[in-house]
Amino acid sequence: MAVGAPCDDSGVHARYARLLVVLGGIVLGFAAYDVQIDNLPATTSLKAAAGVVAAWSFLAAGVAVLSRRPGNLLGPIMVATCFALLARQLRYSHDPLVFTMFFALGELGFALVAHSALAYPWGHVRDQAERVFLKITYVTVLAFPIAILLFHDGQTPLRYFDPYPRESLISLTGDPGVTSFLEDAYAVIAYGLLAVAFIALVARKLWQASPRTRRILAPLLLGAVVAALWAVYNSVVAFVSPVPEFVSQNVLWWQVSALIALPLALFAGLIRSRLAHANIGDLVLRLENVTPAGIRDELATALRDPTLEVFFWLPEQNAFVDVHGLPVELPEDGPTRAVTLLEHDGEPLAAVVHDPILRDEPDLIEVAAAAARLALETARLQAEVQAQLATVKESRARIVAAGDERRDPDQIDRERAWLQR
Questions:
Q1: pLDDT above 50 for 3
Q2: Model confidence over 86-122: pLDDT tens digits?
Q3: Are the C-beta atoms of 141 and 87 separated by less than 8 Å?
Q4: Between these two residues, 270 and 30, which has the higher pLDDT value?
Q5: Which helix (H) or strand (E) holds 350?
Q6: Virtual CA dihedral for 219, 221, 223, 224, nearest 10 degrees?
Q7: ∠47-53-57 over CA atoms, to 5°?
Q8: Does residue 335 register a pLDDT over 90?
Q9: Alpha helices (runs of H) in 176-291, residue ranges in sequence order
Q10: Sheet of 319-321, strands arranged across
Q11: pTM (2 d.p.)
Q12: pLDDT tens-digit profile of 142-194?
C-alpha cells in the first residue's frame, strides 16, 4: 500500500466480521456434533455430521452474499439460519440449562429456512400474504416449545427425542397429558398446516413470476418445497406407531438434502450473475453496427431478460419515446415491471423497463448501460429525427386538410377522378 493512501476501514471491518462469523459457525458446529454423539444413543457419526454440514451450507451461502452484496439482508438471514439450525442440536443435551434454553429456541431454524426462501433474492419479503405467513410461523415456533417446557414433567419422553428424561427449568407443573396435547397440536400446525401453506405460497410465487424470475427462483423454491414436504411427512408420522424402520432410518437424509438444496440454489444464482457480467463485456463490440431496435435486443440478451424495453428521452417534447419517435408512458415500479433511468452528463438519456428481479443487481444494469451509452445516444438522436418527421407529417396533413376545406368540393372530385385514370 502506498504511503498516504486512504484505508477503507469499513471494508476491513466487514472482512473481520465475516471471519468471526465463520469461526463462530465452525465452533458451534463442532459443539452441535458433540452434543448429538454424547446424548443421542441412536445417532451415528455420519448422521450427526450431515446435520452440521447442512447448517454450514447456509453459513457459506450467507457469507458469500455478505461479501458480494453487503446491502442485501439475505446474507444475515442465511447466517442466522445456520446458527439456529446448529443451536437446535444443543437441545438434546441432558444439562437442564442447555436443554431448556435450546429447546425453547430449537424450532426457530425452520422458520428462518422459510424466511430465506421467501426473501430470495431481494433480501426482504414483499408480498403481504408471505409477511403474514412468516409472522404466524415465528410466533408458532417460539410459543409452542415454551408452552411445552412449562408443562413438561421431566420424566415423560418428548417427541423426536430419545427415551431418557430431561429437566425443564421453567416447568410450572408436570402434566404429561397437556404436554402430549401441545406436541400433537404443534405437529399439526407447524409441520402440517404451515408447511402446506408454505408450499402454496411458493407455487403462487412461481406462478406470478416473470419468465426470467421464474428461472432464477425455481431451483431454490423447489428445494424449499422438498423441505416443506419433509415437514408434512413429519406431521403425519407423528401419529403413526410404530414408524417403519426404513422410513426412520432415511428420513434424516431427506431433510439434509432439502436443506442443502437451498444454499446450492443461491450459489447457482451468484454464478449466473458472474456469467452475466462476463457476457456484458462483449456488449460494446456487438453494439457497434446495430439499429436502435437492435439495442433493445442486445441489452435483453446481455441481461437475460426477454421482456426488456428501451425508451428514449426527448427534451423538446419533455417525454419518453420509442424507436419510432412515438411518445410512451413509463409503467410504475411494481411486482411485475421495474424502471431504471439512465443519464448522460447529468441529463436524462433513456429508460430501461425490465424484470423486477434485476433490481437486486443494479450494478449489472449500470455496466450494461455504460457499454451501451454511445449507442443509446445515437439511437436517441434517431428517435428525435423520427419524432420530428412525425410532427412534420402531421402538420402537412393538417395544412392539406385545411386547404381542402376551402376548395370547391366538385373541383376536388374532378381532380381525384383525373388522378385515378
A1: no
A2: 999 999 999 999 999 999 999 999 899 889 888 887 7
A3: no
A4: 30
A5: strand 347-354
A6: 170
A7: 150
A8: no
A9: 176-188, 195-208, 211-237, 245-280, 283-286
A10: 327-328, 319-321, 309-314, 347-354, 338-344
A11: 0.71
A12: 999 999 999 998 888 888 787 888 899 998 888 889 999 999 899 888 888 88
Give the CA radius of gyration of the chain.
31
Helix or strand or coil: residue 281?
Answer: coil
- What distances in angstroms separate CA 167 from CA 91, 98, 106, 172, 185, one per listed residue? 11, 10, 16, 12, 22
Q: Exposed, middle or buried by CB within 10 Å (0-12, 13-18, 19+), for 71?
A: exposed
The secondary structure element, H or E, covering residue 117 is helix 108-119
For cell 456488449, what's the residue?
283
b/e burial code for range 100-136 (CB count within 10 A of at least 16 → b): bbbbbbbbbbbbbbbbbbbbbbebebeeeebeebbeb
Catalogue the long-range contacts made by 68-73 (C-beta closer than 8 Å, 24 or more residues apart): 68/270, 68/273, 69/123, 69/360, 70/14, 71/123, 72/121, 72/122, 72/123, 72/360, 73/119, 73/123, 73/124
- pLDDT, tens digit, for every residue of 198-255? 888 888 888 877 777 777 777 666 677 777 766 666 666 656 556 556 555 556 666 6
HSE-CB for 335 with a 13 A CA cutoff: 10
Closest CA to 101 of 92, 110, 91, 86: 91
φ, ψ of residue 339 to 5 degrees: the values are -125, 130
Report the C-alpha gap between 154 and 167 in whole angstroms. 4
CB atoms within 10 A of CB 350: 23
pLDDT digits (tens, 9 = 90+) for 251-310: 666 667 777 777 877 777 666 666 666 666 666 666 666 666 677 887 887 777 888 888
DSSP state of 225: H
Residue 312 confidence (pLDDT): 79
- Type of residue numbered 335: P
Rounded to 5°, angle at Cα 294 from 289 and 298: 95
Q: Report pLDDT for 99.
A: 93
**What is the amino acid identity at position 139?**
V
**Residue listed under C-alpha cell 411427512:** 233
